[in-house]
Design a protein that fits this description.
7 helices; three-stranded antiparallel beta sheet; single chain; 3 strands; mainly alpha; SCO5389 family protein
């Protein structure tokens, strides 16, 4: 899934003048479902500061939306820009479960458990086998 990059953004990138705000706008406009999911996870984190992390775990309505989410979180550039924009660190499981952690919590037990092989296995189910 490719990003829709406007000509002025491409020109800025060619000149070495691309900033995070321009890039994040391209991601938001190109991957609207992924934007919705990471926004929901980040907002959940902000709304519940005492929670271990914020999350979004509703399966995407279609493979197109799943593709957007995979594209956003599998790309180091996209994921990094989104993390800087929202001020969180994202973690990802099962093609749809996204967690947003405060950067200070990345060395904590909740983060390590979420990203562990054990956490991945415990979050599996037969209906998720195709993702």
């Amino acid at each position: 899934m490719s990003l829709d990059v406007p000509a002025h953004v491409l020109t800025a990138a060619e000149r070495g003048e691309l900033d995070d705000a321009q890039f994040v706008a391209v991601v938001r406009d190109s991957l609207p479902y992924a934007w919705e999911v990471v926004t929901a996870a980040a907002e959940d984190r902000a709304a519940r500061p005492d929670a271990r992390f914020g999350e979004h775990e509703v399966p995407p309505p279609s493979e197109g939306e799943r593709g957007q989410l995979l594209r956003a979180l599998a790309s180091n550039a996209i994921r990094g820009a989104l993390e800087r924009h929202f001020g969180v660190v994202f973690a990802f499981q099962n093609c749809h479960r996204v967690a947003a952690f405060a950067p200070a919590d990345v060395d904590g037990a909740a983060y390590r458990e979420f990203i562990s092989p054990r956490g991945q296995v415990l979050n599996q189910s037969p209906e998720l086998r195709d993702c």
